Each structure stands twice: as C-alpha cells, then as structure tokens.
Amino acid sequence: MALLAFETSCDETSAAVVHQGVVLSNIVSSQTRLHSEYGGVVPELAAREHLRNLMPVAREALGQAQMTAPRLKAIAATQGPGLPSALLVGFRAAQAMAFALRRPFLGLHHHEAHLYSAWISGIPPAADFSEFEPNVSLIVSGGHTMLVHVEAELDHHVLGSTVDDAAGECFDKAGKLMGLPYPAGPEIDRLSEQGNPRAYDFPRPLFHDPNDDFSFSGLKTSVRYFLRNHPEVLQSAQSIRDLCASVQAAIVDVLVAKTIRAARRLGVSCVTASGGVTCNRALRQQLAVACERAGLKLRLAEKSLCTDNAAMIGILAERKLIHLAAPTALDAEILPNGALV
Length: 341
Ligand code: KG4
Ligand code: ZN
Hints:
Layout: E1 2-7, E2 12-19, E3 22-30, H1 32-36, H2 43-64, E4 72-80, H3 84-101, E5 105-109, H4 110-117, E6 120-121, E7 126-127, E8 135-140, E9 145-152, E10 155-161, H5 167-177, H6 185-192, H7 217-229, H8 237-266, E11 270-274, H9 281-294, E12 297-300, H10 303-306, H11 310-322
Bound molecules: 5'-O-[(R)-(carboxyoxy)(hydroxy)phosphoryl]adenosine (KG4) and zinc ion.
C-alpha cells in the first residue's frame, strides 16, 4: 500500500506516490514562467494555477505509479509554511481525499521535508535511512535559508536562519538589478562559469559572526550601489560575467563557511543541503571541497529534488507513519507562518 503526497506551498504543483522509501512517481508542474513576467510569485495567480493543475498532476502521479486511490494507505500534504492561498489547495484536497477514502492524513512542515530530501537518490529515487547519521543541514532557496542540526531521524533543532532576505532572493534581486529575468539564480550560475569571482569585492555578511544566522539584504544593496557607481559594467558581456561570479562567490562563501563551522562545532560527521539554490554549481562544488577538507560526508539533494517537490513530503510522511506519529485532524488548518523549531 502506497502513500500519496501533495506539495503546493509556493509555485510548484506537485504530487508523488511513495512506497517503502521508493518514489514511484513525482510529478512537478512548475509555474516559474507564469510568474517571471511579474518578477516574482503572485499569490493569486499561484492559487489559480494550483487549482487548475492539482487533479491532473495527482492523476498522472497515480498513473505513473500504477496505483489507484482505493489502494492508498495514507494521504499527506504540506501544511506550511508558504503562501496561504497556495497551501490551501493541496492541503484541503488531501484532507478531502483522506476523508473519502477513510485513510490517515498527515500535514507536514515544508522545511522538515527538505531535511530528508538529501537522503533520496538513485533510479528510481529511494530514501535509504539505514545510512542515516546525525548531520547539519543547509536549506537554501528563494524563500528560506537556514541551518538545522538533525540529531536523529525526526529529531532536529534550528541553529540559525536568515534575518532578512533568503540566499535565492539575493540571487534574484541582484540579477534583477543587472537586468536578468526572474528567477535570476540559474542565469547567474550559468554566466558565472566564465566569470572571475575575484573581479569585484562584495561583502560577506555575518561571515565572522559566531552565530549561525545569515543576512543577504546588505549584499543586494551593495550590488545596487556598485551598479550606480559603475553603470559601464553592464555594457560589456565579460564584465557582466565577472559581476555574476563575484556576487555568487560572496553568497556561496558565506553559506559554505557557516555550514562547515556549525558541523565542526557540533561534532557531526555529515552535512546535507537542499532547496533551489543547492542546484548552484559553485555551491555544490565548494561544499564538496570544504567537506572533504574537514573530513565530513556530504549529501546534496539531487538537482531534481532540490526545488520544491511532493516526493520529499511523501518520504517524510512514510517515516512519520513508521515512527507512529499521530495523524493530522481532517479539519486542521494550514500554518502559513509555521516556523521550524
Ligand atoms: O526551492 P525553490 O524552487 O523555491 C523556493 O524558493 O522555495 O527555489 C527557488 C530559488 C530561486 O531564488 C532561484 O533563483 C534559486 O532557487 N536557484 C538558484 C539556482 N537554481 C535555482 N540559485 C542559484 N543558482 C542556481 N543554479
Ligand atoms: Zn522549499
């Protein structure tokens, strides 16, 4: 008996079928192109798209997994955090399905699901928790940037998080100042490949601060002032590449240094990373180099599972059922601002 999971916290409509740690299907319908016209996610448009796409995406997930609704053992969905109108679509649909099928329902924390996405790998993707070890987990995307100490399965506490912008938001806002389309993160990654990361010097916010918090809005502001004082930089393709590489280096340096420092301080032997920014090649590479130097194992979420997806919700829901977690009430509410603790 398999489990069906939904994720609709932001601009991805996703449904996945999971069975004994194996992801039988994981369908993701991304709305990035719809929102790019507006330079960011528009909540009303996101909700409308989720409503339009949820059932086709769920049907495809069931079909690809050769599963029928009556054979499901449980239904799960993201409860929060996220955009209220977007969360409601997947959460209420999952509750209704659980009610109709008389199956347990699990409403899960989006960030908690990210914590385990780095343990899903292979073809078909499967989560192997026999290899699980205590770790420091970096969750880094357009909406969140945090470090979490995962002491045991389903046992974690947040070490620090961004006090202002998320790292992905910084990529996107810096890119917007350079005239790049939304979301600018992937484009900055691509342009940086042939850029010099030492061409321009940008601040590394909170780099030397002993806590595990991040701050990225000052970096974005320094890019704004830099471009005001040096508008000519945007006239040359090579200097744009250098600018991208320099901004990227400032973000990645901070993320990597603080992650490694937390792992050392806590004495864990493993680091994991997930969230959309974990697709960034420089971040993946620098984390790999730094972890090797520090004698730490590194588990990076596979690129297809870095961005928001229902597979990670399904995998976490199954673990919760195995650990006999209580189901969520069928009239429970979404938690749009629910913080991970
Ligand atoms: O996890 P995600 O799909 O959505 C949430 O924000 O929750 O992450 C999207 C973010 C965007 O800010 C995007 O610019 C960034 O991840 N991103 C990247 C890369 N790919 C996606 N940032 C830097 N380099 C990339 N390759
Ligand atoms: Zn996310």
